[in-house]
Amino acid sequence: MASYLGIKPKRSWKEAVVRFLQVKATLRDIKQYQGNCRRLDAYLGDKLLNDINGDTVWAVVQGEMAQGKAIATVNRHLALMRAILRMARDEWQWIDCIPKIRLLPGEVERDRWLNREEADRLIAACAPHLAALVRYALATGCRAREIAGLEWNRVDLARHTAWLNQTKNGTPRGVPLNSDAMAVLEEQIGKHPQYCFTYRGKPIRWELTNTGWHKALARAGLVDLRFHDLRHTWASWHRQAGTSCDELKDLGGWKSRQMVDRYAKYSTEHLSAAASRIENGRGGNVIEMSRFCHGKTRAA
């Protein structure tokens, strides 16, 4: 009867989460979505969608901040909450309106990368299977799952190319293999019939930032380094070497320039000519301000 009268049945937050996770089920980072949903369940698990308002959002922010969570972590939870509510409103028509959810200001963009000497120390400190993964990541900029899941039938050593069918943004792409990447792959030949990178003869199914990773960091004297920072290192090295942002965008498989522009600061070659214009002794068109008279003009 309610539906005939245009009255929408009341839906719960948990119902929205279940459908949201079903929609996202094919994504590679589905486990991260699941974990963040469980985190939000402490605040929203007993609520109906119509009962979620600005005070609810504020409670999430205050609750997370009270537990010492970083602004970036809180913002991930807020973004997920906003995405689920928007989907419930716009796609499923379960609710008519949602509260405005703004992300917190002050989030510091992560800027962690290795110099060449640090990278060499890390490789030397890693077990052989992990060293191969690190070397390949630094040579190609591929993400951890793209490397661990790489299969031989998607590698053409003769053409120095690998093809990724499962990427973060869902778009397959080719990866040109430089001599460093080729050397790593050639060392893996014969270890497994299907997968390029293995551990003790089996495909790598676990998270790469594990105990072995942390032990290697300790031996190398490195702190605050994630495996994904190797991709940042690769991109930073490219910009320092003069690779353009457009080239880097294609190499790394980014869909927009926005994600690539963060590395623009590492390249200054194109500004060197401008910086040299005021070098001592060159003069140029610099005006000598002392030549101008700033006193009162005499009356005629």
Descriptive labels:
300 residues; mainly alpha; DNA polymerase, domain 1; hpI Integrase, Chain A; 2 domains; three-stranded antiparallel beta sheet; two-stranded antiparallel sheet; 12 helices; 5% strand; globular
Q: Compute the CA-based radius of gyration.
A: 27 Å
Span between N and C termini?
95 Å
What order do the helices and strands follow?
A: HHHHHHHEEEHEEHHHH
Helix and strand content put the structural class at mainly alpha
CATH structural architecture of the largest domain: Orthogonal Bundle
Quote the average pLDDT.
Answer: 87
* Number of beta strands: 5
CATH fold assignment of the largest domain: hpI Integrase, Chain A
* Overall geometric form: globular
| CATH homology superfamily of the largest domain | Intergrase catalytic core
The total count of helices amounts to 12
Q: What is the CATH class name of the largest domain?
A: Mainly Alpha
Quick gist of this model?
With 300 residues, this protein is mainly α. It contains 12 helices and 5 strands.
Verbal overview:
This protein is mostly helical and 300 residues long. It has 2 domains: 13-90, DNA polymerase, domain 1 (Orthogonal Bundle); 116-266, hpI Integrase, Chain A (Orthogonal Bundle), CATH 1.10.443.10. It contains 12 helices and 5 strands. The strands form 2 sheets. A 3-stranded antiparallel sheet has the order 1-2-3, with no helix packed on it. Helix 2 crosses helix 4. The protein is globular, with a radius of gyration of 27 Å. The termini are far apart.
